[in-house]
Specification:
The complex is a heterodimer of chains A (117) and B (115).
Chain A: E1 5-7, E2 10-13, E3 19-24, E4 31-38, E5 42-50, E6 53-57, E7 64-68, E8 74-78, E9 87-94, E10 107-108, E11 112-116
Chain B: E1 3-5, E2 10-14, E3 19-21, E4 24-26, E5 33-39, E6 46-52, E7 60-61, E8 64-69, E9 74-79, E10 88-95, E11 104-105, E12 109-114
Parallel strand pairs in B: 2-12
Antiparallel strand pairs in B: 1-4, 3-9, 5-6, 5-10, 7-8, 8-9, 10-11, 10-12
Classes of the chains: A mainly beta (117), B mainly beta (115).
Chain lengths: 117, 115
């Protein structure tokens, strides 16, 4: 089974621009989460989508948005880029929720490294 | 609010030594899940282990073992007989209810295993 794929792997943008990152989950996985990783703030949760609906959102400004398509692929968008948006953006996917209270592991992609100049 | 604290910033050991990583967490949830992830230099987070709050049984999986103590809110992780390939950043993480896929991560501990 192919893992989580993220495109592009590297991206360089300038302040004020906008960027769109893409994530393809593992086949059959319907939950996709996004995280931002920076040296200063560490790993922070951005949002999570399940069946095209945003179920959970982290504490990020409205410049950060996302969406999920019917095939579970997800995109996140950052508008009006700031220098502080330079980070590794990680996407994770998980299979459908179990009803027994068990938890399905999240599998992470390799990330997109965004540099804002 | 959930919080995960990894007090150790860096650990350096010689190959074959054991490495124990500390993790302390805070949560108001009565049901929660604890994880350890490994991040090698390639950047991808690799899932290692998961524990739920209602099962304090400690286990060993290969060279990995963990010690979950609810009374002290700790979830420590041990690598036995470390190898150079174990060099990575290790993250402890916490999640709430079964349908809450928001992971709260600790700051990470960089483990360097020297040959």
């Amino acid at each position: 089974k192919a893992g989580v794929t993220q495109t592009p792997r590297y991206l360089i943008k300038t302040r004020g621009q906008q960027v769109t990152l893409s994530c393809s989950p593992i086949s059959g996985h319907r939950s996709v989460s996004w995280y931002q990783q920076t040296p200063g703030q560490g790993l922070q949760f951005l949002f999570e989508y399940f069946s095209e609906t945003q179920r959970n959102k982290g504490n990020f400004p409205g410049r950060f948005s996302g969406r999920q398509f019917s095939n579970s692929r997800s995109e996140m968008n950052v508008s009006t880029l700031e220098l502080g948006d330079s980070a590794l953006y990680l996407c994770a996917s998980s299979s459908q929720i179990l009803t027994s209270g068990a938890y399905n592991e999240q599998f992470f992609g390799p990330g997109t490294r965004l540099t804002v100049l | 609010a959930q919080k995960v604290t990894q007090a150790q910033t860096e650990i350096s050991v010689v190959e074959k030594e054991d490495v124990t990583l500390d993790c302390v967490y805070e949560t108001r949830d009565t049901t929660y899940y604890l994880f350890w992830y490994k991040q090698p230099p390639s950047g991808e987070l690799v899932f290692l282990i998961r524990r739920n709050s209602f099962d304090e049984q400690n286990e060993i999986s290969g060279r990995y073992s963990w010690n979950f103590q609810k009374s002290t809110s700790s979830f420590n992780f041990t690598i036995t007989a470390s190898q150079v390939v174990d060099s990575a950043v290790y993250f402890c993480a916490l999640s709430g209810l079964p349908n809450d896929y928001k992971l709260s991560f600790g700051a990470g501990t960089t483990v360097t295993v020297r040959a």
